[in-house]
């Protein structure tokens, strides 16, 4: 057992860290870690913390217990127009979580400890990497239970497993074993359940030894291809960040503050 420290208390999730690793655990085992609007709001809050905290370099997303990673939207609160939260407002705010996972410039690893079904499967698909235990089961249920995800749950799934397989997953709503999920490219690695956390932490520790800027740029590049103008904007934003780190950009600012013409001539003009 590792000594995780609680970062913040929530009702639906656990939020902990171990050095540079943050772990967000959906903690609703009675409903197989299905999410309600509040669950997503809490995960968004935790993701915002992970983004802002300079010591955190990688985020693990998992579910409590040994039955489920996440079984998608909580069917008990599914109403007309979305999942109904405590003030009666229908929401589909898991989509905001998908955007946060894509956008955070740090790797997010799904640690799949059981069923990843419906919106739960979409959640692991959206993560940068997936490590699953042998008991994990994957699948979409939308066309069976009256929902669908035409966002990353379709387009990015197809990038991972191919168009034909993605159509099979959505049209037939079957379940797939962890091994099948690995073979089709939806999972990076499958390990015995009692190895799951150790294996995931080892992957995190390896990532933490790598260059954070290089990781950030490669995540942006891999996202940009699918994310259109938004992906390009985030990639471009990081190009600006790199430029701001250069003496050349400092010269422009310094010249303005010193009320003189900038001397950009001294900077190299690379081929
Ligand atoms: C996970 C399954 C396969 C497990 O089956 P098993 O082992 O037979 O256990 P059960 O007895 O069925 O379940 C155990 C207990 O857990 C409760 N429960 C399970 N899943 C849910 C759930 N999603 N909501 C509420 N409760 C759940 C059971 O009721 C049971 O409780 P008790 O013991 O009290 O009876 C099996 O449980 C299963 O198939 N679950 C349902 C999976 C599902 O269909 N999920 C919803 C799919 N839809 C979405 O997720 C939509 C998501 C969404 O919001 C969205 C919207 C727009 C764009 C994108 C998305 C998106 O997809 O992300």
From TrEMBL:
Keywords: Lyase, Menaquinone biosynthesis. Hydrogencarbonate binds at residues 140-142. SUPFAM superfamilies: ClpP/crotonase (SSF52096). Its cofactor is hydrogencarbonate. GO terms for biological process: menaquinone biosynthetic process. Its EC number is 4.1.3.36. GO terms for molecular function: 1,4-dihydroxy-2-naphthoyl-CoA synthase activity. The record marks 83, 244 as: Important for catalysis. This is 1,4-dihydroxy-2-naphthoyl-CoA synthase. The lineage of its organism: Bacteria, Pseudomonadati, Bacteroidota, Bacteroidia, Bacteroidales.
């Amino acid at each position: 057992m590792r000594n995780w420290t609680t970062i913040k208390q929530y009702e639906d999730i656990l939020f902990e860290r171990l050095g540079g690793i943050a772990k967000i655990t959906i903690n609703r085992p009675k409903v197989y870690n299905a999410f309600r609007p509040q669950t997503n709001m809490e995960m968004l809050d935790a993701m915002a913390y992970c983004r802002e905290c300079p010591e955190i370099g990688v985020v693990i997303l998992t579910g409590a217990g040994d039955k489920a990673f996440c079984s998608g939207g909580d069917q008990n609160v599914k109403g007309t127009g979305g999942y109904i939260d405590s003030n009666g407002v229908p929401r589909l705010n898991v989509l905001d979580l998908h955007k946060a996972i894509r956008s955070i410039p740090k790797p997010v690893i799904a640690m799949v400890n059981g069923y990843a079904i419906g919106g739960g499967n979409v959640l692991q698909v959206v993560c940068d990497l997936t490590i699953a235990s042998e008991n994990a089961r994957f699948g979409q249920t939308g066309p069976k239970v009256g929902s669908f995800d035409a966002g990353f749950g379709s387009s990015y799934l197809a990038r991972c497993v191919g168009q034909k397989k993605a159509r099979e997953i959505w049209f037939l709503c079957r379940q797939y074993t962890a091994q099948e999920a690995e073979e089709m490219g939806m999972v990076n690695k499958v390990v015995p359940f009692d190895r799951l956390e150790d294996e995931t932490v080892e992957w995190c520790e390896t990532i933490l030894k790598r260059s954070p800027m290089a990781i950030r740029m490669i995540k942006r590049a891999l996202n940009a291809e699918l994310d259109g103008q938004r992906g390009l904007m985030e990639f471009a934003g990081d190009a600006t960040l790199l430029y701001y780190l250069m003496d050349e950009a400092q010269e422009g600012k310094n010249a303005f503050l010193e009320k003189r013409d900038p001397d950009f001539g001294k900077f190299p003009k690379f081929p």
